[in-house]
Design brief:
Blueprint: H1 3-51, E1 54-55, E2 69-71, H2 75-86, E3 89-91, E4 98-101, E5 104-108, E6 114-118, H3 130-140, E7 144-151, E8 158-167, E9 170-182, E10 185-189, E11 202-203, H4 212-226, E12 232-243, E13 249-259, E14 262-267, E15 273-275
Parallel strand pairs: 1-12
Antiparallel strand pairs: 2-11, 2-13, 3-4, 4-5, 5-6, 6-10, 7-8, 8-9, 9-10, 12-13, 13-14, 14-15
Length: 280
């Protein structure tokens, strides 16, 4: 047989093999998807049969693609943030990491807690709303975030704005900062309730997240074990929980799950569940 004809036959055979393999892969993907959908439906049924908790299938999110992160303290970032808050720094921080500047003073801690007090006239809000002013302050600190709540009924006499930090578009549930406005200007970032990331998160290798089916079953077991009373799951938000007690600090993929009777944090790595009111 002539080589050109033989070559064409070989090409046709290889093409047929590739088509067969493609069909096989697509079939397996469809089977996997059907199995996943069936498992989710079964988990929703278990939740109802064992706990009488309703969950609208359309609310159930896909499994999270977030991965655990570690955060090392970055002294250079800390100093930039102190200067962004206080203007020109007038003193070298001591071991307690207290910064002094022309606009006031700030205290930073290695676990991410921080606070600040500003001199009168340092931060007049002007025509801006307190929420917008607070977000602009986040930008100065090289921080991505959002307004979590704002109490501005007595504005301009007094307002309180709570910000929450995010990383790559996902909220960090434990990283919030409470800003106090008085007489039309920012006067304080409150201590004990304000926390920041101390550095740039880096992906941690070797840990996978649990799928949503497993987490639903863990929640059903949690409800039975703890006699928690709720009748409906109303929403899911994926983000990170901050573990500042570890070294280095860890960001743990976590689901914030709302119900008709309270909210819960589902640790997507360990499956541990805690009610929102249990936060310390």
């Amino acid at each position: 047989m002539e080589w050109p004809k033989l070559k064409n036959i070989i090409i046709i055979m290889l093409s047929c093999v590739n088509v067969f393999l493609l069909v096989l892969v697509l079939h397996r993907q469809q089977e996997s998807q059907r199995y996943s959908e069936s498992a989710r439906e079964d988990a929703i049924t278990v939740l109802w049969n064992t706990c009488r908790i309703e969950l609208d299938r359309t609310l159930l999110p896909e499994d999270t693609e977030l991965v655990p992160m570690t955060v090392e303290r970055d002294p250079a970032l800390e100093q930039r943030q102190a200067a962004a808050l206080l203007g020109t720094l007038t003193g070298t921080p001591t071991d307690s990491m207290r910064y002094e500047g022309v606009k006031g003073s700030a205290q930073f801690y290695i676990n991410g807690a921080f606070s600040a007090e500003f001199a009168e006239g340092a931060y007049p809000v002007g025509e801006a709303a307190p929420e917008d002013f607070a977000l602009s302050l986040l930008e100065r600190l090289e921080v991505e975030g959002e307004v979590l709540s704002a109490e501005t009924d007595a504005w301009p006499r007094r307002a309180v704005v709570v910000l929450r930090q995010s990383w790559d578009g996902s909220p960090i549930f434990d990283c919030t900062a409470t800003l106090l406005f008085q007489d039309g200007e920012l006067r304080e970032i409150q201590r004990d309730v304000s926390r920041r990331l101390v550095g740039t998160p880096q992906a941690a290798a070797g840990t996978d997240c649990l799928d949503m089916v497993t987490l639903l079953l863990r929640f059903a077991d949690y409800v039975k074990q703890n006699s928690r009373v709720c009748s409906e799951i109303t929403g899911f938000t994926v983000g990170y929980a901050l573990d500042a007690q570890s070294e280095p600090t860890q960001l743990i993929p976590t689901w914030y799950v709302t119900t008709d009777n309270g909210a819960y944090y589902w640790n997507a790595v360990t499956g541990d569940i805690r009610p929102e009111q249990a936060e310390g």
